[in-house]
Amino acid sequence: MKTIQHKEQRVGIFIDIQNLYHSAKNLYHGHVNYQELVKNLLGGRKLVRLIAYVVKSEGVQRYEQYAPAEQQKKTSGSEAAFFEALEKAGIELRVKDIQVYAGGAKKADWDVGMAVDAIRIASLVDTIVLVTGDGDFVPLVEYLKWGLGRQVEVAAFGRSTSLKLKEATDSFINIENIPRIIIKK
After folding, report:
1. Which residue, 70, 141, 178, 185, shows the most beta carbons closer than 10 Å to its own?
2. Which of 64, 51, 66 lies closest to 13 in space, CA to CA?
3. How many CB atoms lie within 10 A of CB 161?
4. Which residues is 15 bridged to in the sheet?
5. Closest by CA position to 154, among listed 100, 96, 136
6. pLDDT given for residue 72 in this prediction
7. In this structure, how many other beta carbons lie within 10 angstroms of the beta carbon of residue 144?
8. DSSP string, 58-103
9. 169/1 Cα distance (integer angstroms)
């Protein structure tokens, strides 16, 4: 289903970087062109807020602690360069460290933070665009649509997106169909 878009719509875009990064890497052995993504998602509408959620990788922290100085700069620099490129593209970043629990379990997601931000900003926009394929966002989509009366669009790689999430949204945008969206490594 395609939603109605018009140039006066106010839009908030929330990007789950971890979800997109892993999908692009595993499906296409590449990475996402975020400037092209945002341009296509907006479609000439008014951008109110654009936030991406990133996690500092544990590997970078380990290299910074134990690696020789030359490797430390190279490793931490690639993550810093990625974050800087996102900011240069006009994307506001929310950053947190990976959590490591007793026993070695790791957690690296922003689901709750992304949901809270979308709810906070919902009163300022007509449309919320969630850029994620994670089915954990179904309750958020339903609340934004039915509880707050917002149009909700989901953009993600079709092959790695939850079917329930696709069904819950007003409009699903398969970013695999956007030209120049994948940059091969």
Report:
1. 141
2. 51
3. 22
4. 52, 131
5. 136
6. 43
7. 25
8. HHHHHHHHHS-HHHHHHHHHHHHHHHHHHHHTT-EEEEEEPEE-TT
9. 9
Token pair in block for residue 35:
């400037």
Structure tokens at 1: 């289903």
Q: What is the DSSP code (8-state) at residue 125?
A: -
* Sign of the CA dihedral with 116 first, then 88, 28, and 98 last: negative
Tokens (6 digits) for 141: 């989509």
Residue 133: both structure tokens together: 């394929």
Quick one: pLDDT at residue 71? 42
Q: CB–CB of 24/140 below 8 Å?
A: no
Residues 41-94 have pLDDT tens digits of: 999 999 999 999 998 875 444 333 434 444 444 445 788 888 888 998 899 999
d(CA 115, CA 113): 5
Q: Which domains does the chain have, with CATH numbers?
A: 10-56+91-184 (3.40.50.1010)
pLDDT higher for 158 or 184?
158
Distance separating alpha carbons of residues 175 and 72, to the nearest angstrom: 34
**What's the rounded mean pLDDT across residues 115-121?**
97
* Burial track 98-122 (b if 16+ CB lie within 10 A, e otherwise): beeeeeeeeeebbbeebbebbbebb
